[in-house]
Amino acid sequence: MDKRFSTRHVRQRDLDRILKIEEASFGADAYDRNLFAEYTRKCGGLFLVAEWGTEVCGYSIAAVSPGTARNCAELVSVAVDPAFLGKGAASALMDSTLRRLRRRKITRLGLMVKVTNHRAIAFYKKYEFRKLRRVARYYEDGADGLSLAKDL
Ligand SMILES: CC(C)(COP(=O)(O)OP(=O)(O)OC[C@H]1O[C@@H](n2cnc3c(N)ncnc32)[C@H](O)[C@@H]1OP(=O)(O)O)[C@@H](O)C(=O)NCCC(=O)NCCS
Q1: What is the C-alpha separation between 75 and 79, in angstroms, rounded?
Q2: From 119, 121, 124, 147, mutation site for ligand 1 pocket: most ligand atoms within 8 A of C-beta
Q3: Average pLDDT over residues 110-136
Q4: I want to staple 50 with a disulfide (CB 3.0 to 4.6 A). Which of 89, 123, 130, 151 is the partner?
């Protein structure tokens, strides 16, 4: 983990900054304010931000999966401000998320990623996520998704 970044629970006042990071990262596919507000309420303990000093430079959201086995969680989203890419912010968020999930006795973390998102796939590969399946036309733009999972 990169020691220059600290992580903490999201606060309501982080939402403006998170929305900027989201729009810069995902463009038309960005989550909106209402969805982030809902995640703030629903998975507070697993909705994290990474800070460089006092500047929020990335966020991640994990959720204990409803309707599946109690010991499974899903990585809903992770994104880093383009100005901070490649400096370890996402790794700090992932390390912190994995620690929190293990403390809750979660044994598996799953996620979905676009097949064309090579940077994110390289990131998940570093964390030894394995491919479960490819889901045709999972995304609104018609792109396939890759379902990945990691045992904790
Ligand atoms: C994927 C993402 C979250 C990674 O964030 P980051 O802070 O740049 O990642 P880190 O600096 O912690 O890098 C961790 C590892 O990811 C991989 N990685 C990160 N950027 C990479 C790149 N441009 N090319 C190849 N591998 C890369 C490397 O394995 C890296 O480990 P290393 O530094 O030891 O080589 C970031 O690129 C991002 O926000 N992308 C846009 C949003 C997105 O696609 N989110 C994922 C949706 S499923």
Answers
A1: 11
A2: 119
A3: 97
A4: 89
Rounded to the nearest 10 degrees, what angle do helices 15-26 and 33-42 cross at? 120
Q: Give pLDDT tens digits for 62-73.
A: 999 665 666 999
CA distance 137 to 94: 27
The DSSP-derived string for 93-133 is: HHHHHHHHHHHTT--EEEEEEETT-HHHHHHHHHTT-EEEE
Name residues contacting ligand 1 (CB within 6 A): 25, 78-80, 85-91, 113, 117, 119-120, 122-123, 126
Q: Report the run of H or E that residue 86 belongs to, with start and end.
A: none
Domains of the chain: 5-109 (3.40.630.30)
Q: Which atom of ligand 1 is nearest to the CA of 125?
A: 29
Whole-model pTM above 0.90? Answer: yes
Enter the tokens of residue 91: 């790794």
121 Cα: distance to centroid of ligand 1 (angstroms): 8
